[in-house]
Request: fold
Amino acid sequence: MPCLARILVQQKGQGQIPMPQRSNPTRRQERLGAEIRKMRERAGLTARAAAPLIGSNHMQQSHVETGRSGISPDRIRRLAAHCACDDQAYVDALVAMATERGKGWWEEYRGIIPPSGLDLAEAEYHAVRIQTFEMAHIPGLLQTEDHMRAAFRYGLLTWPLQEQDAFVTFRSHRQQILSEERATPYEAVIHEAALRLRVGGRKAAQAQLERILAISELNHVTVRVVPFDSEDFAGAGYSMLYIHGPVPQLDTVQIDTGHGGDFFDAESRLKEYRQRYERVSTTALPPDASRDLITRIAHEL
Reply:
């Protein structure tokens, strides 16, 4: 390798050459930038003051903090040192995010699936644990294809069937994180109301309940039901997906809305949703009793 080229490679590895800008950063890339900014702000440093400390400049620092540019592990660790951030697990997690390479499988669906759906798939893929509460829907990671098709036909009235099929394939692919190979720890709390809805008809609804029962037998999966006769439940509006990162600071909450999914990661909001989930969980049946109730509902359909 020519001398100049070798020097350039070495400088890039040390974070001395600006990384190319991204025109459309993913939410995960934006999250990394936001965490870099929060680390800096907690130390009382401006972006202009922090940049030269890590061999950067104000403009490049701005691009990093908005997710439009990457940042090297060396710069993250130097910034952590200058910010007196001694949470090594947190710093290591940021470095791991910064060094991710390649595009995830979900990128194949860009332009077909809304960006919030792609962001959800990416967040689930990197999760170390997932918890969800659903009041009126079967969690997406537990749905059968017939259930998905019926739900998409109902909700995507003007969409061509071919594009609805893409949504089904995409959601099915998301479910691979529950396979034995990935085995992402997963806990679902589902209200009895969602289990009794006959989405797709009687046979489809029975098959859906049978799938939930089968998945609930996996060692890394827990399914619990909030029954109608619970006397201490008032959380009908608390449906959520809580995605645990490698450290609590990198947790994410996703909430479904009429226009797509909204994400929250502010520390105060994360605390709020953790408390909400714990509250809802106290009203749910234990796993064995939940399976008994699901079996009874399937027989009653």
